[in-house]
Amino acid sequence: MARGNQRDLARLKNLKKQKEQQGHKKEGDPKKRMESDADILRQKQAAANARKEAEALEKLKQEKARR
């Protein structure tokens, strides 16, 4: 029975952790949320592709300048 207090403390800590996790659920229509998340990812991907193209063009310009 030496662990009785420790078990009680662990239970309280676990309850607190579960309550915090429940508060982080997203609200709203899941389909709309999925679509908006997809739009955000598409925008990020487009920005990344544009940045890669700009870097590639800059690299080509530097190679032409060396010649």
From TrEMBL:
<dbReference type="Pfam" id="PF04419">
    <property type="entry name" value="SERF-like_N"/>
</dbReference>
<feature type="compositionally biased region" description="Basic and acidic residues">
    <location>
        <begin position="1"/>
        <end position="42"/>
    </location>
</feature>
<feature type="compositionally biased region" description="Basic and acidic residues">
    <location>
        <begin position="50"/>
        <end position="67"/>
    </location>
</feature>
<feature type="domain" description="Small EDRK-rich factor-like N-terminal">
    <location>
        <begin position="1"/>
        <end position="32"/>
    </location>
</feature>
<protein>
    <recommendedName>
        <fullName>Small EDRK-rich factor-like N-terminal domain-containing protein</fullName>
    </recommendedName>
</protein>
<dbReference type="InterPro" id="IPR007513">
    <property type="entry name" value="SERF-like_N"/>
</dbReference>
<feature type="region of interest" description="Disordered">
    <location>
        <begin position="1"/>
        <end position="67"/>
    </location>
</feature>
